[in-house]
Amino acid sequence: MSAPTAAVAAADSAAASGAEAPPVFSVDGLWKVFGPRADRVPADPALASLDAAELRARTGCTAAVRDVSFDVRKGEVFVVMGLSGSGKSTLVRCLTRLIEPTAGRIVIDGEDVRAMDKARLRELRRHRAAMVFQHFGLLPHRTVLDNVAYGLEIQGMGRAARREKAAEVVAKVGLAGMEHRRPAQLSGGQRQRVGLARALAVDPEVLLFDEPFSALDPLIRRDMQDEVARLHREEGRTMVFITHDLQEALRLGDRIALMRDGRVVQLGTPEEIVGAPADDYVRAFVQDVPREQVLTVRTAMRPASPAERTATGPTVAPGTTVSEAIETVAAAGAPARVLDEGECVGVVDAETLLHVVAGHPTPSDAADRSVAEPGTGGPVDGAAGRPADSGGGAGASTTADGSAVAGSAKAGTSASADEAGEAPAGPAASEESV
Amino acid sequence: MAALTATVRDTAAPGVFRRPAVRKLGVLLLLAALVVPFVAGRWGSGAWPGALTVDLSGPLGTASDWIVDNRDSHPLFLYFLGHVSNAVVIAVRAVYLALLAVGWAGVTAVASLTAWRVAGIRQALGTAAAFLACGLLGMWVPTMQTLALMVVAVAASVVAGALLGLAAGLSDRMHRALRPVLDTMQVLPAFAYLLPVVLVFGIGVPAAVLATVVYAAPPMARLTALGLRGADKEVLEAVESLGTTARQRLLTARIPLARKELLLGLNQTIMMALSMAVIASVIGAGGLGDRVYQALASVDVGAALAAGIPIVLLAVVLDRVTGAAGARLGDAPAPNSRALWAYALLGAVVVAAAGRLAGRLEWPESWVVGIAEPVNRAVDWMTAHLYSGVPVVGGTADWAGRFTTWVLDPLRDGLQWLPWWSVLLVVAALAWLIGTWRTALTAVLAMAAIGVLGVWGPSLDTLSQVLAAVAVTLVTGFAAGIAAARSDRVERLLRPVLDVFQTMPQFVYLIPVVALFGVGRAPAVAAAVVYALPAVVRITAQGLRQVDPAALESARSLGATGAQQLRQVQLPLARPALLLAVNQGVVLVLAVVIIGGLVGGGALGYDVVFGLAQGDLATGLVAGAAIVCLGLMLDRVTQPTGRRATKGA
């Protein structure tokens, strides 16, 4: 019974995000296999289904990226997260063919990256996608200014022009006054600012970050994360961000793809990843995350009774985090109504909020869905790129929502194949808890 | 399946046979038991059997005669080698004339101001002092001759080495092809390079320059390749991610990133070139080396020293300036560096012009301090008082004599008495124990080649000197190295000494030993020991000092005494360094033992010198080939699986 509404919601979100945010990068069925005669592995379903150890024993090959599909929408921060060896760094290098993919399709703004010739590929790297590296990758014999201007220099820009542009960017990342230092004279955080400035100087459509802050101290790392968040706020540039740090992923990501052994095991908003882990691996991964800081009241709320709908008292927005709602509820000493554009979509009280903190399943059951459901379409529009999670209720609706989340323009197509693991697992997880 | 059976056999084998060393020796023993009776019965068990030698002197003599006859007519010489030869002569001549035209003041000013800009004020003062000392010793003109030859040889070596290194750095196939060649070239004694170039170019400056280039280019090639290959992968990736073309990557990233290695290569090339330029005096290089050579030939130690000191000064200055330039690479340049360069240039021009106007281009005769006379008087006094008859300790000549009778003679006679096949077996066993069956095969083939060439006797003579010198070097070197590793004070005392000794060209070491011990095999061994010692001491001390401090600390915490720590922790953990020290010791000793042919060392070195002096190139070439084989064999026998880092000197 929820299927029609879900379909509407999906179409709705597709239309909404399709209008504002077409995919910049579209990756479909991407494989990267290292080893002898690597291309036979993706082509042969029998080999493709082997796990890493068997594959190595059988063919001597290692599959770093296995059948990965996702879209990166314009203006979003798309985080790829995974432990070392999960293939995330290989994946991001495949996007601009720093590593040549073995199979699959990569499309940037409608242009097939794998079909590009050398000159076209250089053009892509020069103007459209710039990368920031874990160990900075700065040229030690050049000053900060010349490092930042390097990308412009190889494009053939004149000395005066490129230096002027570089100086602007250097100031933007907070390094004004250090233009003439060498990388060796800078701290780690400053070096990464140079790396960031070098990528920004060429004014790319997409910024690719490969674990940019892993080599930094925790405090500096936080500064740099704020810096990236600020740049994203100010310029709205599309970013693909690789990290092994869950906190970082949750802080920065509009959406997160969680990788394991070369596959995407779950793709969704931070809230979805934490609130509805697709499998035990993801659950183990996120179990230490302070849920109240990630989950929103949209997940935590229970349906409002007719009396509560019209009651007065404290209100919160659906996007409020649970920890903020706790403050509100605690201060008022009464349940808070969740208002979405003036309409009451649910209620959070001390009990529902504590359930979230304690890690219990959120209080929703099939009977309540019909009340909660109509709200789902709305938040998608409102929260641009953060479609609501329905809280893991009935299977059908979750699946539909899942596709809407991941697939954007082509919701429900094979683009979401990598979420096949997520969609069935989501309801399974919640059913087991209901 | 194969692995399974192997394990079964392993577990079935008795305990000792599981040790690979024992297994290798067992296989070798079995092989020997099968083959030896046959070959011993067929060819006897004395020195290398005559039936297995190939007399090359005939064909080599013919080839040499053919080259001499056709040098002026054959197209190969007319259109290629002749041009090479002429170009070298013209270039050396031009540099020499330019140096003379600038005058002594001008050359000193240019050199020290350049040193000031690239290496700082201290190096500049040192450079000026060194050049003035060359003048004071009356060696200005020979110094300029050597310098002219060096400039041309170093320029050619750097270009050739950098091009080879570029090829090896960019292409894996080139790298695989070049590396063993360069590695082998680096272990060969300088003397081995002389004969082939003389064969082609005859005695003279072109041969000297080309021998120097062949000797000095490999380090440049190696280090260029190393630098290009060792570039930070992420920097290269970052540069690629910005859309560079391959050419932009090479010019803006790979080459600048390899600057340190390139400068180190330049440094090593300069030092090797100086070393060879001096040795090449025996094939007509002229200059300082020739003065030393002539003086040594007449045992005129004073004159040899007067020419030897400038060589050492030149070596130290060149090494320190290029070294300091390398160390300063990472620093940001001074903000007004261009202006300072301009001042330096201006200063040099002013000094040179002033010297020219004053008509003082040549070093004034009256400023020369003749040290030959007093030195010779001192040497005479030493000969009279220290050579023999000193109470209790005996004289230096007595030592040399005793060393010859008690160590060198028995060793040589013993080696020559050994059945030829047993020498091959020992070589095989040593090389296999330390390396793979490939290294063993190379070593045995090299040793067998010596026999085939018909120089078994002299080669074993050389080998006996090498073994004696290596033994002395290792005993003293390990002792000094351990002392330096355990005491900071000893290390501080040793460091400047080692620094200077490691920069001196091989040739120079012959001067003091001749003064002390006269001529003969013992002085050659002594020179070899002194030459190889610094490298051995340094590698040993470094190896011991780099032992994991945590391991040492845990040994201390368990209450190990100093000796226990050394024996049970430091020495075992420093084993790779010690093996490297042995290898370096052997290679360096061989180089000088061969040169010892110039001071009565006899054997292979003498054959080369004799061949050159008598124009009997066949003898010389055969001896040169034997030197190559001996070098190869000794390197393989002492070579652990990993490659050495850089040559010690």
UniProtKB/TrEMBL annotation, chain A:
Superkingdom classification of source: Bacteria
Bias-annotated ranges (Low complexity): 396-434
Gene Ontology MF, one: ATP binding
Xref: InterPro entries: AAA+_ATPase, ABC_osmolyte_uptake_ATP-bind, ABC_transporter-like_ATP-bd, ABC_transporter-like_CS, Gly-betaine_transp_ATP-bd, P-loop_NTPase
Annotated segments matching region Disordered: 360-434
Keyword Amino-acid biosynthesis: no
Residue ranges crossing the lipid bilayer per the database entry: none
Keywords: ATP-binding, Nucleotide-binding, Transport
Residues of the ABC transporter domain: 50-286
Keyword 4Fe-4S: no
Family according to the record: Belongs to the ABC transporter superfamily.
Protein name as it appears in the record: Glycine betaine/L-proline ABC transporter ATP-binding protein
Organism: Streptomyces prasinosporus
UniProtKB/TrEMBL annotation, chain B:
Gene3D superfamilies to which the protein is assigned, alphabetical: MetI-like (1.10.3720.10)
InterPro entries in alphabetical order: MetI-like, MetI-like_sf
Transmembrane segments: 25-44, 87-112, 124-141, 147-170, 191-217, 269-288, 295-318, 338-358, 417-434, 440-459, 466-487, 577-605, 617-634
Classification via SUPFAM superfamilies: MetI-like (SSF161098)
Superkingdom of origin: Bacteria
Membrane protein topology class: Multi-pass membrane protein
Keyword terms: Cell membrane, Membrane, Transmembrane, Transmembrane helix, Transport
Record's subcellular location: Cell membrane; Membrane
Domain ABC transmembrane type-1 stretches: 143-322, 459-638
Family: Belongs to the binding-protein-dependent transport system permease family.
Protein name: ABC transporter permease subunit
Organism: Streptomyces prasinosporus
